[in-house]
């Protein structure tokens, strides 16, 4: 994958990690613009290539009454507004074949959710849009098995593909990041570490997913040391009242310190090569 082919992505020559970050779901235009502006201020200062992340809908929910979105086209238009306002690329996840062409009209990167990454028709539909495809590693899949998901994209004549590790199921209610998988998957495509989803605690009896946001910096630091190409994290100015995945999100106020520390670690890792 060539980062320079992602529209409006800055600082690609700085030998830094790239960042996919934003809210779990698009809740409103005001919240999306507020979060994007804050993250961009930080990433510009630190010269981190940045992609704004936001789900235009949430199809994988614990309960039927869980928040799923504000309307597909409405949320996608907000993603476009973020891109046009701040001159940054955007990423969103898709869940159905019909989503691929629709979302591709608005965003630069199409993300395949972890539970759906083995769905061949969905992966191929995303690849055929010509957009960058971000494949989330299934919580039930080995790092080695992701080579086949990558090949589905490249066999569809799209070389713009990356893999994101979001942890592996450990029992019923926890995730573990196996950092041995990072160098393995880097043989197939650039690798991103999804820090916040790796700290989810799913399958709670309440039907609301839990999380360990206190461990975000620990996992992120380990990812940088292990050599990930990029980081993925969800952030919000009010995680306690976020409509999706608030329990494992990073508070926006803590982002600058985290990224500042990670950039310092990345510089040290670069010197060791």
From TrEMBL:
Intracellular or extracellular location(s): Cytoplasm
Catalytic activity: D-arabinose 5-phosphate + phosphoenolpyruvate + H2O = 3-deoxy-alpha-D-manno-2-octulosonate-8-phosphate + phosphate
Record's protein name: 3-deoxy-8-phosphooctulonate synthase
Native organism: Maribacter luteus
Family recorded in the similarity comment: Belongs to the KdsA family.
Keywords tagged on the record: Cytoplasm, Transferase
GO molecular function: 3-deoxy-8-phosphooctulonate synthase activity
Primary subcellular site in the record, as a coarse category: cytoplasm
One GO term (biological process): lipopolysaccharide biosynthetic process
Coiled coil: none
The keyword Transcription regulation is annotated on this UniProt entry: no
Annotated metabolic or biological route of this protein: Bacterial outer membrane biogenesis; lipopolysaccharide biosynthesis; Carbohydrate biosynthesis; 3-deoxy-D-manno-octulosonate biosynthesis; 3-deoxy-D-manno-octulosonate from D-ribulose 5-phosphate: step 2/3
EC number annotated for this UniProt entry: 2.5.1.55
């Amino acid at each position: 994958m060539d980062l320079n082919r992602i529209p409006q992505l800055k600082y690609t020559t700085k030998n830094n990690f790239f960042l996919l970050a934003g809210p779990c779901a698009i809740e409103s235009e005001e919240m999306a613009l507020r979060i994007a502006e804050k993250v961009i201020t930080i990433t510009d200062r630190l010269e981190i290539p940045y992609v704004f992340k936001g789900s235009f809908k949430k199809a994988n929910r614990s309960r039927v009454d869980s928040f799923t979105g504000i309307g597909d086209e409405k949320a996608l238009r907000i993603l476009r507004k973020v891109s046009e306002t701040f001159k940054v690329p955007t990423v969103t996840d898709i869940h159905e074949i019909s989503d691929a062409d629709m979302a591709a009209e608005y965003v630069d990167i199409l993300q395949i959710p972890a539970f759906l990454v083995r769905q061949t028709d969905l992966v191929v539909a995303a690849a055929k849009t010509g957009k960058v495809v971000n494949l989330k590693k299934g919580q039930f899949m080995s790092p080695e098995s992701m080579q086949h998901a990558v090949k589905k994209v490249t066999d569809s004549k799209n070389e713009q593909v990356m893999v994101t590790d979001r942890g592996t199921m450990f029992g019923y209610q926890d995730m573990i990041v196996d950092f041995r998988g990072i160098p393995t998957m880097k043989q197939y495509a650039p690798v991103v570490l999804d820090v916040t989803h790796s700290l989810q605690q799913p399958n709670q009896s309440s039907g609301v997913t839990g999380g360990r946001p206190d461990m975000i910096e620990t996992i992120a630091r380990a990812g940088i040391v292990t050599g990930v190409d990029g980081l993925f994290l969800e952030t919000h100015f009010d995680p306690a009242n976020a409509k999706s995945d608030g329990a494992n999100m990073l508070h926006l106020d803590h982002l600058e310190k985290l990224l500042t520390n990670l950039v310092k670690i990345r510089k040290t890792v670069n010197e060791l090569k």
